Amino acid sequence: MSYPRKGAKQISELANGLIDPVLAKRAGINTALLGSWSEIAGEDFADCTRPEKIAWACGGDETGGFRPGVLTIACEGARALFLTHAQGELIQRINSFFGFAAVHQIRIVQKPVSQAIRRSRTPPPLKGEAARKLEGMMEGIENDKLRQAIQRLGTAVMGKGGKQR
């Protein structure tokens, strides 16, 4: 097990450090909210919604304290109606995430929400000439783990998506 060197940072920490100020300035949100949105929204709305921005109230309340903002959420089609009915619970979940009453209202905007396409990490097995060629290349490899690793790599490279040489 290797331990990180002192002073070394993960790329995600550096990226969040660069992205968070831009998101905060333009949209009033941060990467933590975006990254945790599927847990906050729950399985009913995680696939069809996306937080867009939080409009924070200017100034404060009468006592000079903090005033909660309005969260704009992009939602697909008819699911916006169901989201409207569940917005009280969603506001509670969002405020629980922040740890204080950050949002007092949700504004729903109907528009397409694109989700990242998840591809299968294991390519389909090779057939025919490509499979025979890969087997020929792996002759003489005795270590089983190394053979399996090269099999996976060769399948990915020589498969449908890769170029055969």
UniProtKB/TrEMBL annotation:
InterPro entries: DciA-like (IPR007922), DUF1159 (IPR010593)
One Pfam family recorded for the sequence: DciA
The organism's place on the tree of life at top rank: Bacteria
Protein name, UniProt field: DUF721 domain-containing protein
Lineage summary: Bacteria, Pseudomonadati, Pseudomonadota, Alphaproteobacteria, Hyphomicrobiales
